[in-house]
Description:
Distance between the termini: 100 Å
Largest sheet: none
Order of helices and strands: HHHHHH
Number of strands: 0
Radius of gyration: 23 Å
Amino acid sequence: MKWSLLMTHSNSLPSALKIAAEVDAALAQAGLAGPQVEREAIPLYLMFVQEFIDCSEPSPIDKTNVAGRIIDWLKDNPQPINPIIDMLGAQLNEVIELSKAHGTLQDFKRRELLNMHQKVVELLRQSSASLSQPHRDWL
Length: 139
């Protein structure tokens, strides 16, 4: 008798496929479905940076030129460096959370992202110090 009650009750629960279909439908409705959505941490971080500086250059921002592109943008749009660094830190945290939620953040990718972000921050601080010092041409 108890077994038959258990079998009757389990049929009322949604199947794993039904739950997956509902999740897919919700993602599609929110515009988050499909291959166009970036789920990897470093490309997502670079995409956020590119959107932030409104980069219209034909070559995309990549790991090797991200700091240089931000510095070039700051030369054209002078701003205090600390709010920029704070914003990059907030984006870093958001990228980590999104990548965790998508299940794409392995430990080595997280370390690579954190190292890249730290290098960007260091280069921005160095650049800010050199840009804020007056240039003296004594010769």
